[in-house]
Amino acid sequence: MENFSSEDQDRVVQAISLAESKISGEIRLVVERKLHGMSAIEQAQHYFEKLGMTNTILRNGVLLYIATEDHEFAIIGDAGINQRVPDNFWEETKQEMTDFFRKGELANGLIWGITHAAEQLVKFFPSRADDINELPDDIYFGNN
C-alpha cells in the first residue's frame, strides 16, 4: 500500500510486540484500502470476530482497523477492557491518531495509538509471569 512501506509495517509490528510485552492484552491491526459497504466500526467488529479476538482469556483484545483510501479507521476493545476504561477512551485515542494521519504520518499515528493504548491498559491488564501471546502480532491485510 502506498504510504505504508515495508519499513513502516515493520515499525508498527515492533510497536505491537513492545506494547504486548507490557500488558496481558492482545493488539491486532487490520489494514484495507477501502470499506466494503460498512462503516469502519462495523468492519472492525467483523474482523474482531473473524480473527478470534473474543477468545482471549481475559477478554482484553484491542483491534485497530484502517481503510487507507477511504481515510476511515476505528478502534475497538473487548468486553474486559470496555468495562474498565473511561467512556471516552477510544475517542480520545482516535483524535490523537487523526492528528498524525492528517499530516500524512500513517505509521506514526498507528504507533502512537498502539503505544497509548498499552500505556493506559497496563493499569488494568499488566503483563503477568504466565502471560502467553494468544494472537499473532503481524498486520492483517483484509480484502483489498
Describe this structure in words.
There is one protein chain. This protein is 43% helix and 16% strand. It is α/β, with parallel strands linked by helices and 144 residues long. The protein has a four-stranded mixed β-sheet with strand order 3-2-1-4, with helices on both faces. Helix 1 (6-22) runs parallel beside helix 5 (106-121) and helix 4 runs antiparallel to helix 5 (106-121). The longest helix is centred in the first third of the chain and has 17 residues, at 6-22. The protein is globular and about 40 Å long. The mean pLDDT is 89. It holds the Pfam family TPM_phosphatase. InterPro entries: TPM_dom.
Précis, in short:
The protein has helices spanning 6-22, 40-50, 79-82, 89-102, 106-121, and strands at residues 26-32, 61-67, 72-77, 139-141. The chain is an alpha/beta fold and 144 residues long.
What strand order characterises the main sheet? 3-2-1-4
In one word, what is the shape?
A: globular
Number of strands: 4
Using only CA atoms, what is the Rg? 14 Å
Counting helices, strands and paired strands, the structural category is alpha/beta
Question: Which features would summarize this protein structure in a list?
Answer:
about 140 residues, alpha/beta, Diaminopimelate Epimerase, Chain A, domain 1, 4-stranded mixed β-sheet, 5 helices, about 15% strand, globular, TPM_dom, TPM domain-containing protein
Q: Mind sketching the topology for me?
A:
Elements: H1 6-22, E1 26-32, H2 40-50, E2 61-67, E3 72-77, H3 79-82, H4 89-102, H5 106-121, E4 139-141
Parallel strand pairs: 1-2, 1-4
Antiparallel strand pairs: 2-3
Helix pairs in contact: 1-5, 4-5
